[in-house]
């Protein structure tokens, strides 16, 4: 479409959309000198792709130019299946940092933790790597080994770890009854079907008797699909705003509200978060906190309050671009701030006090064995003894139930 001609002799006012001709000329000069004088021959395509990567990498840690392989890799991770070690990473001050390990993956089994710094991958230092280069190095064929060097805050020496890549099929929702009436819903990341899977989990847990309390575990959840986060929050809210976004373009200004048809609007709720809870996980925690729907427990979340759009390009490649910031219902931006829990409980292990010697039925010879679901109870008890935050969340739910009964 041609612009309307200006009157003769009229001088257009300077516009922010005008191309900076001097900088473009300088770019062309740099391009030519690199092509002509660099120690090795570099083709034009490589130089231009590197220029585009640099253009985006200087904007923020989450914007990136994706070649065809990287674009496919991103699609695979969004769909929940890829070959790798199961880890979400980001860049902070030029260092490759663990945001969170994904549950039941080589990374989580090796003990990697949020905010660990990855110093090298297969002997290659990471200090000059782009985020996508690091991701590409960590992904690979299932069964292939990978060596990483990790530095953890508070430790004097780095850790050398050897992991074996697996097909990472990240089931994003798990659930169980910790005790009769008290449910546990774990969401490890937000994929396209997460909200529906969470709804089904709530139905199963409340099948035999109504839930008297629920723990929603969002610890070490790196985020994912915005609409899935909205859908999960909507499971517990029957009205009101969940999240809204603001950006420069009209299609980046969105608002999401709760639907009245809510399966768990009245269930007492405790939400667990920590430093590995990021992005979409923070949307859910922030919405429930602002709406006073549940108690947020744990430690401060990661603080990723930006929204990225993945834009396919005509050549099969793609662009991941930060286009908006999201805000909680009360207008809070959590970018670089995070969600502060209502009740702070640091990570730890529950140590049971040694009990003095006393004879109980279970100590008597030939005592009758329990006929109840002991295996499931033992599993839940072991989980609670290993996870102090989870144990405290269950105690809080019980306390809330007692208070509610006395009203």
Automatic annotation (TrEMBL):
Gene3D superfamilies: 2-enoyl-CoA Hydratase, Chain A, domain 1, 2.30.42.10, 3.30.750.44. Keywords: Hydrolase, Protease, Serine protease. InterPro entries: ClpP/crotonase-like_dom_sf (IPR029045), CtpA/B_N (IPR055210), PDZ (IPR001478), PDZ_6 (IPR041489), PDZ_sf (IPR036034), Peptidase_S41A (IPR004447), Tail-specific_protease (IPR005151). Residues 71-139 form the PDZ domain. Belongs to the peptidase S41A family. This is S41 family peptidase. It comes from Halomonas dongshanensis.
